[in-house]
Amino acid sequence: MSDRPVRVILDAGAIKAFTLGSIDVGEVIAEVADEGAAVGLPILCLVEAARSVADTDRLDLLADHSAVVVLSPWPTDWRALAVTCDIVGRLDAASAVLAAYDLDCSVLTNQPGLYAGLADGGPIIPF
Question: pLDDT tens, 103-120?
């Protein structure tokens, strides 16, 4: 884990968008880095994104970025992960929203509908 506080979580859709050159995602990363904070990448979101990303060099660039922290779910969170997965329908999205709740930040996503079943739509920043 980094000494930098995590300000935003990228879900699989945001990660894929970054690899396609999304200005929206790049700007968020730059703003967070300028604040001396970090962007969180849940490992399950990285895995999901990697399954369909053509530009793996950009995926590596993102994962190795100095303002990025790769996050793993805590083993003790397995039940919360299971419940959240039932709500959002995907394990990677569930891990993103749980990380956001744990770190008191939001999830950057291009698929806000995934999180519609969460109370108040969840801590989501759509782009």
Answer: 999 999 999 999 999 988
Residues 43 and 1: beta-carbon distance below 8 Å: no
d(CA 62, CA 78): 27
- Of 119, 114, 123, 122, nearest to 12 by C-alpha is 114
pLDDT at 2 over 70: no
Helix (H, G, I), strand (E, B) or coil at 126: strand
Residue 12 CB coordination number (10 Å): 28
Asked if the model's pLDDT at residue 64 lies above 70, the reply is: yes
At 41 the three-state DSSP class reads: strand
Question: At 69, is the secondary structure helix, strand, or coil?
Answer: strand
pLDDT of 99 > 90? The answer is yes
Contact between 124 and 111 under an 8 Å Cβ cutoff? The reply is: no
Per-residue model confidence (pLDDT) at position 121: 85
Show the domains of the chain with their CATH numbers: 6-115 (3.40.50.1010)
